[in-house]
Amino acid sequence: MTKKILMVALFVIASTSSSIAQTVVNTTTDSKSDVKTEGRTIVISPPPSAISPSVGSSSSDLCTTGVSGAVQTQILGVSTGEMVRDENCERLKISKTLYDMGMKVAAVSVLCQDRRVYDAMEMAGTPCPFLGKIGDQATDEWKSNPNRIPDPVVLETKSDVQKRNATIGATVGGLALLLLLL
């Protein structure tokens, strides 16, 4: 029986020593990889702005008015501005300056370049001066030179203004729609 125990003990020692022993395995791995990536970038920014230029005058004594405007879409923006001359304002300032200098006939002559003033002077019985002549002499000269009489002023009516504004609105609306479609 000791022989059997000895055999079992040797068997146990032999089997455990082989399981405790390390096994070294050398392996070589060769790998290739192709990486393909696709991306999309979204840039969120505020819309561009077309800003109307500030068209003004530094003095209120000028007979001009500034007009400006701008239109902006996501693609295109346009702005513009200009000065508009007021001829009636100029006529009044020139006339006042002439009158202040004592040149009353010249001041009235400047105002008479406007048909409304010409008609008012005729209706009042004091015709506009004609080349330095006043009163009845001026009336005779005006009658013999009707081509020198200022052209009549056609005043706008409410319907004229409404038609003009409708045309402008339709034009601007059409351009805005066209720019949006670009």
Summed up, what is this model?
The chain has a two-stranded antiparallel ribbon with strand order 1-2. It is mainly α and 182 residues long.
- Main sheet? 2 strands, antiparallel
- Using the CA coordinates, give the radius of gyration: 49 Å
Quote the distance from N terminus to C terminus.
106 Å
**Helical coverage, percent range:** 40-55%
**SSE order:** HEEHHHHH
Going by helix content, strand content and strand pairing, the class is: mainly alpha
- Uncertain parts: none
| Secondary structure: number of strands | 2
Overall body shape: rod-shaped
Indicate the mean pLDDT.
80
Strand order, biggest sheet?
A: 1-2
Can you walk me through this structure?
The protein is 46% helix and 10% strand. Strands 1-2 form a two-stranded antiparallel sheet. Helix 2 runs antiparallel to helix 3. The relative contact order is 0.07. The mean pLDDT is 80. The longest helix is centred in the last third of the chain and has 24 residues. It has 6 helices and 2 strands. It has 182 residues and is mainly α.
Q: Any descriptors?
A:
rod-shaped, mainly alpha, single chain, 182 residues
Topology:
Elements: H1 2-20, E1 64-72, E2 77-85, H2 87-100, H3 104-111, H4 115-124, H5 136-144, H6 158-181
Antiparallel strand pairs: 1-2
